[in-house]
Write a structure and sequence with these properties.
This protein is of the alpha/beta class. Helix content is about 40%, strand content about 30%.
Length: about 150
């Protein structure tokens, strides 16, 4: 088997001699490439190796960005003041880097005002055009008309 270590030359050794080399250094003999010909083993401190791997994975996980989706709900008869109030919240969310899921909820017989809901969502998207782009145009799903808005990259 081929043995790799920091202080010895990479060479082919019998299994017994490879184990003896690892024991002399008080380290572990770890098989790295079992399918290679001959198989490759490395003399390392296995506990330290596992610790370093966990540390790297944790570091990569901390660098990942999590996508936050904020929901804003309208009714088909939402007034101008309420619209402006929700618009200000949406602007704040987009500046923080969150996605927005804006939807109009149709309750009972208000489902006949589908056009009003669509106009409301398009007006909302137009107001937010400088901060975010529309990912999904208004689409009716059951009693909700949903639209998704992504923040613009800085």
């Amino acid at each position: 088997m081929r043995v790799v270590a920091d202080d010895i030359a990479s060479d082919v050794y019998p299994i017994e001699e490879a184990v003896k080399l690892a024991e002399e250094r008080e380290l572990d003999l770890v098989e790295i490439a079992p399918k290679a010909d001959p198989p490759v083993c490395k003399i390392i401190d296995y506990k330290k190796f596992l610790y370093d791997q966990k540390k790297k994975q944790k570091e990569l996980k901390s660098k990942q960005q999590k996508v936050v989706v904020k929901e804003i709900r309208f009714g088909p008869n939402t007034d101008d003041h309420d619209f402006d109030f929700k618009l200000n919240h949406a602007k704040k969310f987009l500046e923080e880097g969150a996605k927005i899921k804006a939807y109009v909820f149709f309750k009972g017989r208000t489902i006949v005002f589908k056009e009003r809901g669509e106009v409301l969502l398009l007006k909302f998207a137009k107001e937010l055009a400088d901060l975010g782009g529309v990912e999904q145009l208004p689409k009716l799903e059951g009693k909700r008309m949903i639209m998704m808005i992504n923040p613009k990259k800085k």
